[in-house]
User: Fold these one by one.
Assistant:
Number 1:
Amino acid sequence: MKIKSAEFTMSNSEVAKCPKDRLPEYAFIGRSNVGKSSLINMLVDQKNLAKTSGRPGKTQLINHFLINKNWFLVDLPGYGYARVSKKAKKTFQKFITDYFEKRKQLVLAFVLIDCRHEPQPIDMEFMQYLGESAIPFNIIFTKADKLKPGALERNLASYEQKMLETWEEMPQYFITSSSKYIGRDELLDYVENVNDE
Ligand code: GDP
């Protein structure tokens, strides 16, 4: 997919106030500092559409960006500061779970994971929550430039092993680096194909 236009539409903390359009939308979510803003900026090829900073937890809103006037990229708040609880729903802010449970336009979610890290309970719990809520999701492993190819392969293999303790199969995943422009075409082509289905 070629990006012809990408514009900020609105920020909200209530799903009821999100855009009324029926356009398909794709949500991006992950732990604070995972590289979500950088990834979004890479995808749309703009330096500053999504704000980046080292300051964790700053984006506390549902942000809609209209892409090519025919789909929404949705930037959701970073999680990871709430304590992990047995009841996943309580771990994540209500407006996030509301978004996932009520937003009919949502096609799928991309859960961002830093490729350097061991599986983290909060990510596992979040994916578990998505699974239980029957929300389709893919994984995006970020910051791939930070690992040598062998180490990346080993980390992904151990991530998959951990996932297979609770999942029947490893969800589809993408490997990206925003600083090296890795994974951009694969992700955009994937969204285009899903949109065409
Ligand atoms: P967010 O909090 O998830 O939106 O994360 P940011 O996009 O603000 O990135 C957090 C930090 O990681 C920043 O210092 C970025 O420069 C850095 N970062 C993000 N993506 C990459 C990447 O692909 N490679 C490298 N080396 N650093 C990255």
Number 2:
Amino acid sequence: MIQRIVYFPSLRKLLLRAGSNSASSKIGTNNCFASQPSPLRSHSSDDEYADVDWDSLGFGLMTTDYMYITKCCEGQNFGQGQLSRYGNIELSPSAGVLNYGQGLFEGTKAYRKENGGLLLFRPEENAIRMKIGAERMCMASPSIDNFVDALKQTVLANKRWVPPPGKGSLYLRPLLLGTGPVLGLAPAPQYTFLIFASPVRNYFKEGSAPLNLYVEENFDRASSRGTGNVKTISNYAPVLMAQIQAKKRGFSDVLYLDSATKKNLEEVSSCNIFIAKGKCISTPATNGTILSGITRKSVIEIARDHGYQVEERVVNVDELIEADEVFCTGTAVGVAPVGSITYQDKRMEYITGSGTICQELNNTISGIQTGTIEDKKGWIVEVD
Ligand code: COI
């Protein structure tokens, strides 16, 4: 597709405020403010959509036009950042994130309404969670306002990559990285806050079909007083081996048990878990080892509004036998039905499909997120 490269007014203002047109951003230097703003050029506003086959979207990375980037020194505050062309970043080999894993990530989505408006779902919750994680990982973090403003800038700059209504969303991946150089084990002297984006639809290859989970007993995801409750990058590589093994055996993903007793449900590699029996829905309490998911929290509130009794508590693995329904929640995953769980070679099956609690909750939360159901809770933030 031939793309005309011209300025368009609202984005131009945004980019002039804070732009660098370097495709490769140097962020691993000692100088916190190495790059200077310069105007960026962007696609014409009449390129309403990027040249994407929206019907074949999954959860693979599709790079977009721009990313947002800002940095600050330890002990200072992040200032206004800049949009630059999506591209590689240059890091010192001694960057804290490369050597000691000092990094956090977030995930949130932008949705396109039928009237073209763009919506974010509870973005301040991601900002708060990043702040809490940054404290745990001894990192500087952006303010809530900076974080939300940065998300809005990233969405606007990549507007043509937000899928049409009903075809998916623009996944936003905020990263907070210790990019300053260190050798001895210590917090990095410099931090980078970056957001990139990718259009996405279903997370699992199953699409919206029910998941088949495997209860993992050989590996733990988190331990008491560790970092299981924060979204540090260092929580995620360790789950890969179990996930790969389970996928080889035909499972969709792995469900973890608590490391202390191996008797209680924790979470799936990439999402939280709920079980339902009658009108009662239970989910493991966020006790320090479980990520406090924003979809999890929202689904709990919606379920209570719909008259379900929701319990956040210790959920014993044996309760899987009695459950009517099991479902997962997460930003990437959404509200996903679980069709079966295999534990110690015993396969348990659950009700899925029309009329389920999972479907009811999914319809409500996705309706709010995409603007087809009125947001009575103040969860939606309009981008433009
Ligand atoms: C998300 O749901 O946004 C996550 O960050 C999970 C990730 C493993 C895709």
Number 3:
Amino acid sequence: MMVGSAMALVRTLEEDPGHAELLAGLLSVPKTLPSKYLYDEEGSRLFELICDQPEYYVARTEISLLASIAADMAHVLKDRSMLVEFGSGASVKTRLLLDALPLLSAYVPIDISQSALSAAAQAIRGEYPQLNVTPVLGDFTRNLKLPTMIDGRSIAGFFPGSTIGNFSPSAAVDFLRRARRLFGRGSKLVVGADLAKTPRVLVPAYDDAEGVTAAFNKNLLARLNRELGANFDLGSFGHAAIWNAGESRIEMHLVSLVRQRAALLGRTFDFAVGETIHTENSYKYSPAAFAGMAARAGWSVERRWISDNPGFAIFALSA
Ligand code: AVJ
């Protein structure tokens, strides 16, 4: 299944030339690595495979919810002239929204990856020839500028995939506030967010029986070996998905199975048996907690749609 949201997060290691972020993460206690580096070409391929695993309900639940609410969504967004997507788009989700909004005149995908952006823009231009497609290259976790042609009052933003769940709550509020400032008063923002639910469903979704999520997680170390000449012994690390109830998040960790030492960029890192590298957080919200974050960022929830179990929410926010 090509859901496309992984491409929203493609990061090259060259973005941080001194690799300060990687080294700081491995030097901190407990050890961490930034989740954005999970998505090189191989990571994006593995994420698409995750979306096909029976345990990973997230992508398919959002897609069927979007399909079932297309008419409601069209009503909420009917006077919008422009759709701005955080992420390169061209996924099933983008098409579901574009199909529901035949009067839309412009589509603006924003992404950090030039290649993902160009491919997405070209695909959408081919399929929606009446649409003005204006890609913006940029990091949407930082400050962005939109093309000047944009009329602030008729923008709809789109941030699918529960990608917002990979931000800490305070980073999520910052992101929402920045989007609010970028779009201006009267704008709308459609956000997909996965909801908190029993760990009996959550944990297998992030630790599937086929081991695809484990391979996705370990690819982070494989990537450090490939691109930076590190010597992590992939066979000596396991994958763990942990539900942190206090923080309402699923954590992915790489677990050292033995006492070992690894080298990266002229430094060495020691691991005790069972010591982990924390590689990703996926926050799961209640509808009320999500609405609270939106309110702190200057948005109010205009409509909210929630799937039947497993629960996934799509919020239409208005500024
Ligand atoms: C694409 C960021 C939404 O957090 O569910 C899937 C990434 N990580 N399995 C998520 C992911 C492990 C995914 N997002």
Number 4:
Amino acid sequence: MKATVLAHPNIALVKYWGKRDDALILPHQSSLSLTLAPLSVTTTVEFGAASDQVEINGHTAKGSERDRVLRVLEAVRGEAGGKLGPAKMVSRGDFPASAGLASSAAGFAALAVAAREAAGLKADPKVASMLARLGSGSACRSVQGGFCEWRRGERADGTDSYAVQRFDAKHWPELRMVVAILNRDEKEVKSRDGMKHTVDTSPYYAAWVKDAEAEVPRAVEILQRKDLQALGELAERNAWRMHSTAFAADPPLCYMNPATLGLIQHLREQRKKGMPVWFTLDAGPNPVLLTDAAHEVAAEALARACGAVDVIRCVPGGDAELKGEHL
Ligand code: PMV
């Protein structure tokens, strides 16, 4: 009745930006990401508590955060035939929320896998991915490691909208992601709200959907042949296009700040000098640099020279995994 799971966050190379169904969290387009180690979130779930309890990083969760966790637990109770009572969930991340990386992706992936295990259900990455998706869309890509593709699916009930692993973490061990934290402030507009505003008001949105969908198979083909330059170029143009849809929203939405653009400009200059380094950018000001093991130290130095207050060097991470010790 009790299980603990560790999961890693992920960074999208082809972003998810916009829902076609807000309740079921179904995206307009497919996306593709890399799971990031060593960053992780560990979550323990135990059924049989007196009432539902949700504790995240030492605090009792409230409001929508609590509601999203309860929604996942409720779905697991349903899958287990309704015989399970209230649950206690305790979750702890080993990286700052200020990193600009969605700790919620790792947290909901760990929750989905742990809750199913605690309920005695047979491990199933596809079902766990759909469950994680109910908490946070991008979480469906953190159930498995390596490179995962979230297929948008066609059905209205969401039963074909989940992530599949295209390559595992060992496929390209030299790949590096260097998170450049330029600003620790919490972002003003959450991804959830920013993407909804973009879908509702940006005249560029339809073009984004068409383009992003077509980029996913290209990204898979590039990953197959491990071509860093092609992957870097694809990740950059996809990030620019996601942000362009947001710039064109009404009122406009801009997640970048001057330091973000300064760093991007500097990357261009370094590339001209032969350094293999590109960026991607989620809904915040902190770029993630894409490079290889031979250049990760130089990439960190470059980020610091451009004002990064902290830098986290990441490698391809593995699947969500069961742990023997509980929180
Ligand atoms: O899953 P959410 O609601 O945290 O949205 C994630 C959106 C982006 O991080 C900007 C892109 C992505 O695919 O992860």
